[in-house]
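Hi, here's the filled form for the chain we discussed.

Project: internal
Contact: R.S.
Residues: 111
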Amino acid sequence: MDLYHIWCELKAGESDLAFADNVARYLGSLKASGLIQGFRLTRRKLGLGPDGLGDFHIIVETNDLAQLDAAFRKVATRAGEVEVAHAAVYRAVENLRFALYRDFPDAERLR
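And the returned structure, exactly as it came back:
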């Protein structure tokens, strides 16, 4: 499993609950299309967390890089409902940070 991490802050005036709904709509549509395996939205608690990472943390789960690439290709079309859903999330955030992790040891690791 590959885990694509996104940390962000909400722009001033943006609703946290509307953001959560928009993330669920956007990533839920990618999951329903088989383009991702799952996702999770979390929020920093008690102000704890490393400097430079946002208040919100999104984790997108994919089987492999090929599935992640297929999801990126779909979003890159900037068309249809996926663009409407993506835009609703993207316009609400700032200070984005990204990372890509994998389960370890993964299936490719020789023992």
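Let me know if anything looks off before we file it.
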